[in-house]
Amino acid sequence: MTIVVAILGLGFLVFIHELGHFLTSLALRMRPRRFYIGFPPPIWKTTRGGIEYGIGAIPLGGMVKIPGMHRPAPADADHAFGRAVDESPGLVGPVQRLRNALAAGDLNTARDAVGGVAELLPRSHLSPAAAKAAERGAQDIADALGPDAYWRAATWKRVLVIAAGPLANILLALVLFTGLFLTSGGNPTTTVERVIAEQPAAAVGLQPGDMLLSIDGRAIIAPEDARNAIAESRGQPLTIDVLRGSERVTLGPVAAVRDGDAFRLGFQFAAEPLSLGASIGEAFRVTGTVTKEIGKTLAQLATGEGRENISSPVGIVQGSSDAAKQGTDSFLWVLGLISLSIALLNLLPLLPLDGGHIVFAVIEGVRGRSVRREIYERVSIVGIGLVILLFFIGLSNDVDRLS
Fold it and tell me: Can you say how many angstroms the Cα of residue 73 is from the centroid of all Cα atoms in its chain?
């Protein structure tokens, strides 16, 4: 069950990312054509104001379609109408006129030409598959030639629409961290809040609400004292004195278990909530610290270091599942960290990531004209290759951790 919760949590983060793109493009009158919760095929859809809203059969994340992400090129006509032309030679002339207009950069003629092709499609006796592909292609090209196409918008609008996805993930992380500091993640105490099942602390009878007084005679004044005492035991038996209500109770002996490089008994301390202002400040501090560490890890990859810190979606889901087993607070902490990681990964200046689109939007704004589609495609191949490489590095790390 926790695996399902972890997968849905990851899907929710992707949905928030796409929602950021959608709301910003809508606010800037760069009217999106589709917005889905989940991924198609749709199990339900409706059209409002020229936008198709739907619920996809694949219940993970979301999808937004913004018109005209690239300036239309002759190859778009080939891709859209290739099969239709093969089945109906009468379309050759109209499609060629469209190709010529796109090649010449004559957008008005191209708009008329694609409209002419669209009018001919119902009378061209095409197979259902060819007709559907051609109709969709005609609509995509018409959208890309329209006044609200993404590639025709001002540079600042393009940058803002693309940056809105990662910014939505960062904002979500800040909201989650603030809420956690407000409720349970503030100043730690020496009172036990949670005892993890099937761990040494549970086996020896430690209970939520117990206040730790000493471990092996060592006074526990702050949580760090307990952590140090447990770590220094190196797995040797310990006795624990707690205050339970008004009674002093001695538990143990009990041995801590190794968890990676640390030793743990399997319990969590309660914390005193912070004020709203302090919680917001701590949320920004944590976000800044995590951002710096993720940036450091990505920089180390360029020198061949930091490989062990990369995780694939498999490891992310497993880590989220483990956190969900430990409780809602742990799961929300991990969800916030993953949201932040998704934002920072997407801001890398690589196509097809958001950061790459931001870089190209700025370049085109400076040049005053669009970058050729072939350059987009070549750079995207490099970016996709690097993303796939990161995926396989993370997957190999996850396999090693699980084996």
Answer: 31
